[in-house]
Amino acid sequence: MASDPLTEPAVRTRPAVARSRRRSDLWLLGPVAAAYAAAQLLLAVPGTGLGWDETVYVSQVSGHAPAAFFSAPRARGISYLVAPVAAFTPSVTALRIHLALLSSGALLVSLRLWRPLLPTPVLALAGALFAGLWTALTYGPQAMPNLWVAFGSLMAVGCFLRAARAPGDRRALVGLCAATALAAVMRPADALWLALPLVCAAAVVPQWRRPALPATVAAGAVLGGASWAVEAELHHGGLLTRLHRAGEIQGGLGWHPALWDHLRALGGRTLCRPCDVPWSQPVTGLWWFALPVLVVGGLAVAHRAGPGPWRTLLLATAAALSVAAPYLLFVGYAAPRFLLPAYALLSLPVSYGLVRLFAAARGRPLVLTGLCLALAAHFALQAAISATLAARSRVTAAAFAAVAAELRRQGLRPPCLVSGEEAVRTGFRTGCASRQVHGGHDGSISAAGLVRLARSTPAAVLVAGGAPPPPWAARWRPHDLPPLPGLPAFRAYLAPSARAAAPPPR
What we know:
two-stranded parallel ribbon, 18 helices, five-stranded mixed β-sheet, mainly alpha, single chain, globular
């Protein structure tokens, strides 16, 4: 590392120097990606089960159970990503390992794309700061799209800046198109918010006014979102109808500032809806208060360093604010995974400022020790939250396994049908289709249709908390099930077509 890591030249052309830099990148960026993979495999993989959203995505390509209802807001990108494993094995552990390795590789590629723009120490620290968040650790091996939007956003902004600086860099344009398409195939709306600052930058900055830049961004968004738009026309009554329905399912998009909700969710709540819980763990949100200060500090250091670093980090910050805006201002609930793309981009200016701060503290042992201890405490807290969530997931997975085993003993064997409370996860674990009666956003069958189907197909409706069964299942056979977390007095009402297995002879 040079005496000042922020003054390292960004571009060199001598082959020997290029090879030396590639080796340096591998030594600094490679361990960050490897540590990210190891942390996932240690904390978030062993014994964890599929969440509700994960089950919906995985069921679309699984050979283990019929596909769950796919509601209007969802896109199929993450289903494509898990298909090579989910289509051949029901093993959740195999799926988790597959995604952990892929996400670690994506982190390495994302950081490496920024190498002509920022020094390697800055990128290594940025990668560690992002990968060390409990959201990145928890969702790295999960079948959820938000982390992949984060990688797509990081790659897209980096490739945009590389193409803007070197008009002849066709690989950067290809990368820009592919990265924008990756974000769009995962979450089309997020890709539009990502594209907005890139298109504006191409129009505002004189040196970047090249038609190829906005055209490539638009092409990537169209390519990635094409399947979602086609599906809207075929199955949702058109694009506008699907957009309207997606807004309804998300609670109605409007002016709903949710900063306070997101702050409270940092303690380990994967979904805060409605977010009326007390803020019981303020220490988990301290880094959120420090984040704006560190971003501004990094931008100030970059401004003094020159127009190159300043424009680079300013665009990354603008893109981060753009992709975060809809979730902070227009969605009336909080899920920490929504902000992963913003955190990935904001890690760059934060790291830029911290590297300068560490360099300035080299001759001050107490200051340097304090900085190292603060970072270590931050990483330890994030790992502890991720470990707690994984432990909770293991308990939930064991509970669903017990429920599925009991339902199979009561005659619910494929082909079969499950409706009611937690039908998606229970049905998938049992190998059954999950169908909800019209009325909710997952309604996919009428009550009469379900009763008619249950005459020949083993079926069950699940209720919890002592609630009565729906009227159309009032005469079905009741059977108490092992409780699920948060669902006491869990009971199944089984159709006559579900015949319990005979007890083994004594």
